[in-house]
Amino acid sequence: MLETPLPKSIATVCLSGSLPDKMEAAASAGFQGVEIFEQDLLTHDGPPEGIRAMAEDLGLAITIFQPFRDFEAMPEPQRRRNMDRAERKFDVMQALGTDLVLVCSNVQPAAMDDPARAAADLREMAERAAARGLRVGYEALAWGRHVNRWRQAWDIVRRADHRALGLILDSFHTLSLGDTLDGLAGEVPGDRIAFVQLADAPRLSMDVLSWSRHFRDFPGQGELPIAEFAREVLRAGYRGPLSLEVFNDEFRAAPARRIARDGHRSLIWLDSVLAGPSVPASPLPAPPVLGGVEFLEFAVDEAKGRELGGFLSNLGFRLAGQHRSKSVELWRQGGVNLVLNSEPDSAAAGHFELHGASVCATALRVDDATRALSRAEALLCSTWRERLGEGERPIPAVRAPDGTLIYLVEPGAEGRSIWESDFHLLPGAAEAPGALERVDHVAHALAQGQMEGFVLFHRAVFGLEPAPPMDLPDPQGLVQSRAMADPSGRVRMPLNVSESRQTATGRFVSAIAGAGVHHVAFSTPDAAAFVAGRAAPMLTIPGNYYEDLAARFGLDDRLLADLERGHLLYDRDARGGEFVHAYTVSFEDRFFFEVVERRAGYADYGAANAGVRMAAQARARPWLPAPRD
Amino acid sequence: MLETPLPKSIATVCLSGSLPDKMEAAASAGFQGVEIFEQDLLTHDGPPEGIRAMAEDLGLAITIFQPFRDFEAMPEPQRRRNMDRAERKFDVMQALGTDLVLVCSNVQPAAMDDPARAAADLREMAERAAARGLRVGYEALAWGRHVNRWRQAWDIVRRADHRALGLILDSFHTLSLGDTLDGLAGEVPGDRIAFVQLADAPRLSMDVLSWSRHFRDFPGQGELPIAEFAREVLRAGYRGPLSLEVFNDEFRAAPARRIARDGHRSLIWLDSVLAGPSVPASPLPAPPVLGGVEFLEFAVDEAKGRELGGFLSNLGFRLAGQHRSKSVELWRQGGVNLVLNSEPDSAAAGHFELHGASVCATALRVDDATRALSRAEALLCSTWRERLGEGERPIPAVRAPDGTLIYLVEPGAEGRSIWESDFHLLPGAAEAPGALERVDHVAHALAQGQMEGFVLFHRAVFGLEPAPPMDLPDPQGLVQSRAMADPSGRVRMPLNVSESRQTATGRFVSAIAGAGVHHVAFSTPDAAAFVAGRAAPMLTIPGNYYEDLAARFGLDDRLLADLERGHLLYDRDARGGEFVHAYTVSFEDRFFFEVVERRAGYADYGAANAGVRMAAQARARPWLPAPRD
């Protein structure tokens, strides 16, 4: 669609810290410009000229000065005072070295509902701006008193008819009202669009002002149709910056560099969505086609490795191979591979030291590892390669936001599998019998403030799509959950976060001092047979749950008795899909496992049972190995 | 209005933990009954009969079993299935030993808009209930598909016309829609009201379902007219329990005993509001008439006491007295008394050990300390008396939710002031000159989840009224603020809380490992003269702030220059009231002081300047004493 992407800019209000902190973070994340949010300048102890010099040093354009509020269509004497106020702000802009100011539509009760008067006021402001070589952009705030739609703002800009006055578009203000940019391209010439601001947001039903001030997020993190919005802007011929303006309580409290990098990643991703995967000008390699989880790797030491091996044996896994050069074991059951890595002086050992026994890597089957790696690098991700022994296969990896690795495995790229090339496989291991088919999903527990970053990472790098957020009731507080999955459903990844440190999610984050894999679910064609045939310590589900199941679903007594005997949970969706699942107790109050049986296309995760599961976990004692003689 | 208050009950969903945890917390807080929330029973690993026995042991009635959802006006076959479901739940109720079930109005898309059918279904359910000696209550959910107002629910109950069916009222479902109970008393006989649930909430403009599920709070903690609601219920002749049903994310994550005690306190307070302070039957002594802050006491050790004395000297305070029996100093300026307590083995010493140098007590002037103390005790507060030396005056105290003491001082109750009785006053100290008039406000920094408890405590015990919440922008995140003040404005107490630990509020809470007094503001008739005449280390305000002040308020250049010279902040309210104020830097990155000048009835706190202040604090180095030779 475009040969080169539009310049990328970010508003200082998105980031935490002082104005210099914010500018430094924006530059280091690779932005070309910043919007200076007025409050950030007011609280800065130094003249605007210093900020101008700093921006030049950092290679940042100051794309706009914002916001100038409550200007147009005021009665006298406020009208006259507002012109004086504008002149004072023009002084500041000239000192800053930016030529554009954002005027947002008036919210004052005293403002008049008079587009002609608004146009006359903005024309006078533009005339004064032009005398100094400056420009004015006018934007409809979603909660403007009389002007809250872009068409109204455009009508006023058109009437004012001054070359130094343009229209400013903001995705949040348009999309939050359910409006679109349909018709923009025919009506508004591209060079009359002075500036474009982008923000996504979760779909919340609340007043638009509070929604805007607290819950905006970066494109791809929320649920608004940002790509459609940006596409219309480009169709109209706009060629200025795309600039992020995101008010988010958690972003404001997070390290500025991390948030700035997430912001830049969101715009790079948006470029690729706008270009479309099949368009040659696409600035990003296409996302990988995912074939499922090839293996999960646990960081352990020798003792924990033995204990975890014992736990897995009870679940029906068998030791299937030993790494050729490292202290690494392969445990296998059916289509599921688990790797236990206790090699000293490895990445896994570093992980173990920081976090204790936990998942340190996930391997995804991809169609083209090289392309997937290039995409990740273009999206500002760091990548990684492990040192190799003789003849071992290199597996490239991307570092996830929790610091764990995501290996990119091409199944069948060569004759030999990674298992054959890197492991001494035990006789018969390739045909290890077992009722597990594959890794069904890998659930992560995140610390507060990490959800948006994880959603964007997995969406942008791997093409996973997020489901709407939902709340799960833990006895010690709510857990917010958002499931991500690739279009084929082969890779599924629920993300959970909780304010409370006492919930199952919060306890895990405390235990491993970070985010990570909280549980791994394996699919099986027959969950009841699986639990009946295994010695694993399963989570005990109370009888009251089955009483209620009977009342809710009218299940027959035999099925009910089977479920209760196996401590199996049950769910049914609106289309008749059924879900039967059971959990192990936790390994040392850390991660745990789940077996799931999906019938008739059931596509969810049994959220209705999460409360019962979490209450049972709060009661259950974690698994500990039997004492040795 | 009533001779004895109605029984007090709380829903298990208000509290964290397992069902036995919740019941134990409710009993220990003094509730007479609990509502059993069904999910809490489902997740409990034990038969309902055990819960019944436990409730009996704890002296708790099980007031109701709830909720039974999506029952009425469904097409077949769901209708028949719902009757079966009801029978199964009746079994559970009989095992629990409760006779009342809450049916909330149907939210299913399949539900029919047919009050006659709804009435017929509820009549059949009531008939089946009556056959077992049980009763059914019907409640309008605010987001019910067809029934969401109490009048609709009453119409259906009236049509059903069965003695085992009554109306259930919930303050949130009524008030959140802007509805009232006007007309209830004439239309609904008291004995047809089966149950009443109470919840308050902050005024949020969001969808009522999310508002209800996450942000309810206890009566007196929010902004809804709960007292009016309860008054109408009583006028109608209802004499059953008043039961709290509050879904709140923070309450669910907090210790159950604390939340249960807050809940009970809210109902005791509500009783007194319903009775009215002048009605003899009022179950609570009237709140104290407040006369301002008599003194603030800082816990220090000898070294910190010297340093803080030096800091106060620079602000113009003078050492005015020495305690007769303890290592306690009085520092005074005009009408402001500050006490520095370094007495070993005292309550202050214990506070110092836990929290370091910080305010450990606030003394309020009250009209009747004995009455105030009785009120606090009736409101489940703990009280305290310091050991006394010979001839010293006893000052009773109430313990605040942050563990500090609130002394109750009767000025002029006897001839001698507490200063004359307990202190050796230095010559001339009584007339210490100074430009400070009084303590204007005492701002607290709270940890997350503490706001509601503090609001209720100060409202119930001291009659302070909370202002609506507002957000203040710190460079490291948002700070939520709620100001409390007594009707005369003599005692003002802004409460601040922040999610981020990096804001000024968050840093303070980390530094003292708890909630506490973050800053103390003193009033002066001339803030500019005050700062000009003092050697105190004031917070430096950047020039850009004054540029913007000029643009916003059109202040004349001389005033502007005066403000800038003194690092004074300025605000003006809509009625022309003006506010001039300045801050000291922090004492050791802990608390700080403010001087304020209120002109023409300005009643706020200069919130517009909070961002500039907090950015300046993030830059400022805290005050440290000059090195000694």
From TrEMBL, chains A, B:
PROSITE patterns: VOC. The keyword Metal-binding applies. It comes from the Bacteria. Its cofactor is a divalent metal cation. The keyword Acetylation does not apply. Keywords: Isomerase, Lyase, Metal-binding. Belongs to the bacterial two-domain DSD family. Catalyzes the conversion of 3-dehydroshikimate to protocatechuate (3,4-dihydroxybenzoate), a common intermediate of quinate and shikimate degradation pathways. This is 3-dehydroshikimate dehydratase. The lineage of its organism: Bacteria, Pseudomonadati, Pseudomonadota, Alphaproteobacteria, Acetobacterales.
